[in-house]
Amino acid sequence: AQRVTQPEKLLSVFKGAPVELKCNYSYSGSPELFWYVQYSRQRLQLLLRHISRESIKGFTADLNKGETSFHLKKPFAQEEDSAMYYCALKTSGSRLTFGEGTQLTVNP
Amino acid sequence: DAMVIQNPRYQVTQFGKPVTLSCSQTLNHNVMYWYQQKSSQAPKLLFHYYDKDFNNEADTPDNFQSRRPNTSFCFLDIRSPGLGDAAMYLCATSKWGGSGANVLTFGAGSRLTVL
């Protein structure tokens, strides 16, 4: 079955601490993975995608096919990083399957 | 300069009374999607269009229909809303192929309440 799992619904860290949002996937083909973010009162938007291999707003994510994971990391969290984060998997054609999301709170 | 616009933002309807949600885009994207998102759950794909080619998800209830009269507009029709259909409905668009494939641009959503 094609599935995206984000095991933590809520994650709270202090400003300046490292943060890691976990994402695991189940997919039989070659996966294409994304992280989307929704800030308070804003619409859902793309944060980064694994094929770009880029760092956005200090966040990076590495695809680990052995562990079927695509965890999102940032070495020093900022208060403005507080948001809802969704991991997403391209399943076929244009279909994108989302995880249930992790609400990240960065405390001052 | 919103690029994916959903109307209405809030819709209240009565049990069984048909409702239509609309989505328009100025991006000229080939693909348009409708997602349903219930509280604390993942956005769930209902269907999507590649140009006029309609793609229904296997588990989308027949109660949900869609129309795409042209590139810019897409509609979600709920023929007989039940209490379980109360949710946020998200429209999104993307390019087909190339670097923009599967990069979704979302609207702000339409929140449906069923009384």
Order of helices and strands of chain B: EEEEEEEEEEE
Helix content of chain B: under 10%
State Rg of chain A.
13 Å
Instruction: Categorize the overall geometry of chain B.
Output: globular
Order of helices and strands of chain A: EEEEEEEEEEE
Give the total of beta strands of chain B.
11
Q: What gap, in angstroms, lies between the N and C termini of chain A?
A: 40 Å
Quaternary? heterodimer
* Number of strand elements of chain A: 11
Mean of all residue-level pLDDT scores of chain B? 93
Show the largest interface: A-B, 21 and 26 residues
Unreliably modeled segments of chain B: none
Q: Which class do the helix and strand fractions of chain A yield?
A: mainly beta
Describe this structure in words.
The complex is a heterodimer of chains A (108) and B (115). Chain A is mainly β and 108 residues long. Chain A has strands at residues 3-5, 10-14, 19-21, 24-26, 32-38, 45-49, 60-61, 72-74, 83-90, 96-98, 102-107. In chain A, the strands form 3 sheets. In chain A, strands 2, 5, 6, 9, 10 and 11 form a 6-stranded mixed beta sheet that branches. In chain A, strands 3-8-7 form a 3-stranded antiparallel beta sheet, with no helix packed on it. Chain A is globular. The mean pLDDT of chain A is 93. Chain B is mostly beta strands and 115 residues long. Chain B is built from no helices and 11 strands. Chain B has strands spanning 4-7, 10-13, 19-25, 31-37, 44-50, 53-56, 64-67, 73-78, 87-94, 105-106, 110-114. In chain B, the strands form 2 sheets. In chain B, strands 2, 4, 5, 6, 9, 10 and 11 form a 7-stranded mixed beta sheet that branches. Classes of the chains: A mainly beta (108), B mainly beta (115). The interface between A and B is medium-sized, with 21 and 26 residues.
